[in-house]
Amino acid sequence: MARLGGLLGFLLFQAIGAYAQAPLYGQCGGIGWTGPTSCSAGSTCIYSNAYYSQCLPGGSNTSTTTTLTTTTRTTTRTGTTSATTAPTTTTTRATTTTSSLSGNEPATFTANPNIGPGGSNFRDSPHFRVYGATSTSAADAALDMLEAAYSCFVGTLGWRSPGLSYNDNTDDDGPWTKINIYSVSTLPGAAGVMHADYATGMAWLEVIHQYLTIPGVTVHEFGHGMHYHEKTWVDQGRTGAWWETVANFVADTFKTSPLCASARSQYGQSATATEINLSKVIGDSFQVIVDGSVDTGNYYEAWPFLSYLTYNPDGYSGLGTNALRNLFRQYANNSNETPLHTLARVSSTGVATIVGRYWARMAYVDIGHPTAGQVFPSQRSRLNYANLDSQGNNVYKPKSARRPLYMGANIVPLKKSGAVTVNVAVSGASLAYTATLSIRNTSSGATRYVNLSGGSASAAVASDEEVTFVIANTPANLILYDAFSLSSDVKNGLDYSVTITGATP
Predict the structure, then answer these.
(1) d(CA 408, CA 293)
(2) Segment Disordered: which positions (predicted)?
(3) Residue 152 near residue 263 (C-beta atoms within 8 A)
């Protein structure tokens, strides 16, 4: 079976609690959350992701929160199908013609009802057609959201238009086809799924009615569609698990990023809470950087690495706004290489340095993301930092089950009293590594990073600063690995000893 990243859908369940009210900007829901699930007056509990809902200004204080669990669903690639019997009601949304985004792209694409099951109950926008929505307002809200996502990723960020066929080798002449979205009553274990039609080379989506206007579902699935139409990562086993990473990056970027602010404004969309799941990203930071293992993997949650590449707070060569697009465009066709191998060509900085600094910045979620760092203070007390065991005499070793795997890391907050000098020395490392002292001013939030050189570092840490030791498994030679079937070399954890004085884990 050709694998398109295991393109998983979502299944949403309602979780209702009876606790004291959470304060403004406090957490009010998520998997494993046992605190308040309603918000103080003047704020509403807004879903962000499976592990986090937040009290945000506005609305009633009586709302309950919705949380996500994920269920595996393999994306199908189907042949062209005939239109089904038309419903009795037909609605067509009037649209205003706008100028084309680039080149010869027309302002309005051509609809094709033979992509997917078809039907005559639909609403149109310039680039999309929504079939079977339960109301005109739901269809129009979904169309506005999708047009905003299209404007951001195709118009602003320059991704290949998903209106162009996967089969088309000359983009300038089209044809340009609307993307079909089917609002359906049910899906087996999923709230949304992307399909690809072989004959036309077009992606099409199915989304359960009640989730049609939720960007974490519909824009996520549209992210799969855009990814598919970029072409180079399709049917490459070693890019497989990264499909979910990309789709959640697309959804989160649409929801939060200033890169999409103009597009959101154009279509009446507001910025909403981040999708970040720190319980997984930080709590299981030792895992392979993108891990597709069943039940335990992180491939849905690993997207902050793509955000780090995009926001590029360290100014590394070749990274920045177009980093992910460049990973698509510079992928060696049909090479079955990993995206990290492509990253080595996109940036001259070196993958080990990039990954090492990414994890150092994740100590305080200082990756350039506009809102992810704001989530960290409310979640950090519940994150799993139990990475090291004391060996006595200020020496520590990683727990065997939490040794950093390929491009994973240990993030170890240190305790101190007042102003101190922190000394760290790593010895006996079984693999190549990158280690850093991450230091944050607790008043201003300013961060600084002290790299270990020759296995050691010393840093003066002021009384109003906090410090974290971070060590990442960063081999000089990249490994060709399939995240859905981890080989022994990527599961070989970094063992080491670290001596720490001036502070304790």
Answers:
(1) 15
(2) 63-121
(3) yes
